[in-house]
Amino acid sequence: MAKKTVLVLALAGFLAGGVFAQNAKKNFIGGSVGLLDFGAHYERMLTPKFGIGAEAYFNSFVFFWNTIGFKAMGRIYPTKGLFFGLGLGLGFYTGDGDFEYSRNGTTVTVEDTLVGITGFLIEPEIGYKIDFGKPGGFYLEPTLGLPVVLGVQKATVFFNDVEGSFGVGMNPRLHLGLGFAF
Questions:
Q1: C-alpha distances in angstroms, 153 versus 14, 106, 116, 122, 168?
Q2: For residue 96, what is the domain's CATH number?
Q3: SS (HEC) of 113-154
Q4: Which pLDDT belongs to residue 36?
Q5: Regarding predicted confidence, which is higher, 92 or 96?
Q6: Cα separation of 104 and 18, whole Å?
Q7: Residue 15 lies in a domain
Q8: What is the model's pLDDT at position 24?
Q9: Residue 114's domain spans which residues?
Q10: Which of 72, 80, 99, 103 is the most interior residue, by most CB within 10 Å?
Q11: For residues 74 and 85, is the Cβ–Cβ distance under 8 A?
């Protein structure tokens, strides 16, 4: 019994030492802007090399492909500043493209129409967190992501809302984050 207690306390101490590293800020909150992009995010560092968080944003790529995303994310920091992330959540995508749907057992294709997809969002990203001055305080975060929305396509065809087949919508997301660490 005593061995188990010592083992559990040693494991808890080891994990707490990684989670609560000395002289490091653990919370990051900020906003992001891009050419046609804006959003807000929060990140909590669990270890010096791994953080989790949440983000909400609107992204437009040349006004034709738009994404609204709400995601939970995880980030790995292999070196100081550089990170690789993956976000999962709910996404809404609109874009110009071809739309297929079934009418009376026949597949109909409408070319160059506005197609919407609501569904599961997957967003891989790469970026670099630049801390001003001493650790903590303000930071700058240039990031490149690729939001991918998986779901059912919808479009308006002859003034009727029509559901189509499964669709994938994606557009690149380049933005600059600015925030504060505490």
A1: 49, 17, 6, 17, 8
A2: 2.40.160
A3: EEEEEEEEEEEEEEEECEECCCCCEEEEEEEEECCEEEEEEE
A4: 80
A5: 92
A6: 61
A7: no
A8: 62
A9: 26-181
A10: 99
A11: yes
Work out the average pLDDT over 36-57: 94
In a domain, 2, yes or no: no
Q: Which of 144, 145, 143, 141 is nearest to 179 (CA)?
A: 141
Q: What is the C-alpha to C-alpha distance for residues 49 and 158, in angstroms, rounded to an integer?
A: 53
CA distances for 95 relative to 122, 135, 169, angstroms = 17, 41, 8
Cα 166 from Cα 32, distance rounded (Å): 31
Kindly state the helix (H) or strand (E) to which residue 15 belongs, with its residue range: helix 2-19
Count of residues in the chain: 182
pTM of the model: 0.76
Is the pLDDT assigned to residue 13 strictly greater than 50? no
Q: Is residue 108 part of a domain?
A: yes
Distances (CA, A) of 58 to 71, 88, 93, 181: 12, 15, 10, 23
Q: Is residue 11 part of a domain?
A: no
Give just the sign of the alpha carbon dihedral 86, 88, 94, 95. Answer: positive
Paired sense of beta strands 27-34 and 173-181, if any: antiparallel
Residue 128's beta-bridge partner residues? 82
